[in-house]
Amino acid sequence: MPPLSGKVAIVTGSSRGIGRAIAMRLAADGGTVMLTATNAEALQEVQAGIEAAGGRASSMALDLRRPEAASELVQVTLQRHGGIDIVVNNAGATKRGDFMDLTDEDWMDGFALKFFGMVRLLRAAWSQLKERRGAVVNIAGIGGRTPGPQFTIGGSVNAGMLSFTKAMADLGVRDGVQVNAINPGAIRTARLSKRLEALAKEREISLAEAEAQMVAETATTRVGEPQDVANLVAYLVAPGNRFLHGALVDLDGGATKSL
Fold it and tell me: Which residue among 8, 36, 61, 219 sits deepest, i.e. has the most Cβ atoms within 10 Å of its Cβ?
């Protein structure tokens, strides 16, 4: 029997990139996946792909920046699927740039989706997770451990997510809910592609050369793939891995050098 047979998972930001890969993997492992992001058409494509592979999924387009959106998502998930066993908080992109150029609106938007969207969704889903002894995985990022001048918003948001994960893990001990976080490094997404394109243009080199230089300069094994993150999420939420709790796992090819 598949490891997630009978389990219902919410995956936020699941219309593309890391979230899409996570949703596809959890469905392949037997879970029923509630997909959510702002782009309804892209969500339908992911859902169709899951169903074509024999999996089960449904989707709901919404913006988790809205204070009411998390509760709406939980209510619809319960109506369609009868419960919630897994929540993967993946939604959220934060603006990069020089600190002096970033506005209050940039900062508020960075926290609104990635941080407060996560907080509200767990508040709304916690009673279900407690009842069903569920699992939570928060997708943060290595910027929360190793801040940089171009990533002041993202680093701050990710650091907040890591602290929140540790706090919720303590609550999870009491309530029987497994809580962990993953810190992805450089993953091959649309955002990374733009960074590589900018680097290639700046240095007048090919994209392949730009990627090779990025890997060399960060002293990492390679650029990560969305499937790398999906594989780790699947491991974390598998029933046999419940002792892994309150962990902040760096998935970055060795980019994080600190203890």
Answer: 36
pTM: 0.96
Q: With respect to residue 219, please indicate whether it lies within any of the assigned structural domains.
A: no
Placement of tokens 């760096």 in the chain: 250
Residue range(s) defining the domain that contains residue 233 = 8-188+224-250
**CA–CA gap between residue 155 and residue 153 (Å, rounded):** 6
| CATH value at residue 92 | 3.40.50.720
pLDDT in tens, 74-131: 999 999 999 999 999 999 989 999 999 999 999 999 999 999 999 999 999 999 999 9
In angstroms, the CA 56 to CA 226 distance is: 20
Model pLDDT, residue 93: 87
Q: Both tokens of residue 157?
A: 């948001």
Q: Residue 61 falls within a domain, yes or no?
A: yes
State how far the Cα of 225 lies from the Cα of 237, in Å rounded to an integer.
19
Q: Of 186, 80, 160, 86, which Cα lies nearest the Cα of 126?
A: 86
